[in-house]
Amino acid sequence: MSARISVDLESPVPPYEQIRGQVSALAASGVLSPGDRLPTIRMLAADLGVAPGTVARAYKELEAEGTVTAMRRRGTVIAPPRPDAAPAHAIPPELTAAVENLVTLARRHGISGPALLHLMGTAMRSSPGDEAPTATTLEQ
Description:
The protein is mainly alpha-helical. It has helices at residues 15-28, 41-48, 52-65, 93-108, 113-126; strands at 68-71, 75-78. It has a domain at 2-84: Orthogonal Bundle (Arc Repressor Mutant, subunit A).
């Protein structure tokens, strides 16, 4: 699984948040299923070249949001969906993959997170047939 997760140390987004976001997206898109085990903190930290505390914080945040469950002696696993959560099919896997590819491409070209959000907001507002979404605080 660590092959699907990457950390961009040049990004303004903290590494723990990059890990949390990617694991969350993989779980939401169905790439990771309930019961799937995540790598140990030390293993993922070594694979990504970050401190174990960084991965531990990401796992703790994932557990707080209900994406994973930490089980003694069995490791950290993807949690079953909560009854109040949106259906898994709400975000198509191809959309998640397209967004991940867009972020990777933007980073490769040196586009900052706020600049990418601004571009996305502009694209959303100019999309025919949609109501104009309100600007986020990051776009203002």
